[in-house]
Design brief:
Length: 153
């Protein structure tokens, strides 16, 4: 099964908390409380998010974190890549020369195409889109939706 890591999932939660109040500068513990996560986990997430330019940090008594850009300008692919590195469905989707059967493989080109489709799909969803409920998102996007059952909270 293809899935993002738990830390990437949590990063999207923390970023939606920041996006819901874009003028606020929130501490790691404040973010943790609002996101329902442990403070050490949130602190661990904030470093790669800051390095990727998704959040900015402020030091001092009133220090904390806020989004570095508007939520409409941050895509899911940026969040995934900040936490996990370059998106690659298979090793050969990213790098050549890492597979012993690369030269004779008939599947490589198709995996690269699939990789591009997934990257484009993630790039087309902004952090602002993640704030919308599924019904709002499908009503405003005009895109084809995939039926999904949401887990109860």
């Amino acid at each position: 099964m293809l899935r993002v890591t738990k830390l990437t999932d949590y990063a999207s939660v923390v970023l939606t908390v920041l996006a819901s109040d874009p003028d606020a500068v929130l501490s790691a513990s404040g973010l943790a409380e609002r996101a329902g996560l442990e403070t050490p986990t949130v602190a661990k997430l904030l470093k790669p998010l800051a390095q990727a330019g998704l959040v900015e940090a402020f030091r001092g008594v009133n220090g904390g974190y806020r989004l570095a850009r508007d939520a409409t300008d941050i895509s899911l692919v940026e969040i995934v890549e900040a936490m996990e590195g370059p998106l690659g469905m298979t090793e050969c989707s990213l790098h050549t020369g890492h597979c012993g059967i690369e030269q004779s493989c008939g599947a490589r080109a198709n995996w690269r195409r699939i990789n591009d489709v997934v990257a484009d799909a993630l790039a087309s969803v902004s952090l602002a889109d993640m704030l919308a409920t599924p019904a709002q998102a499908s009503a405003t996007s005009g895109k084809r939706t995939i039926p999904a059952t949401l887990a109860a909270a």
